[in-house]
Amino acid sequence: MEARRAEEILQSPDTIEVQYQQSSVWIEEVDRGKDTAQVKLLVDGKRIEVPVAALEEKS
């Protein structure tokens, strides 16, 4: 995923499924300077920083 799309998802009023390494996540913040995102793993609530390119939008 690109940082621009991650920001669109973050700002969207809709719920859009996003995964990181086959785990559903909630995008909380995007850092375009580092090309990373702060996400919350929905399975356990853990917050981690991941490369935006490693996020996958599910449709």
TrEMBL record:
Record GO biological process: asexual sporulation; sporulation resulting in formation of a cellular spore
Subcellular location: Spore core
GO cellular component: endospore-forming forespore
UniProt family annotation: Belongs to the SspH family.
Organism domain of life: Bacteria
Protein name as annotated: H-type small acid-soluble spore protein
Lineage of the species this protein comes from: Bacteria, Bacillati, Bacillota, Clostridia, Eubacteriales
InterPro entries: SASP_SspH (IPR012610)
Organism field: Heliorestis convoluta
Keywords: Sporulation
Pfam family of the protein (one): SspH
Matching HAMAP family: SspH
Main localization, broad class: other
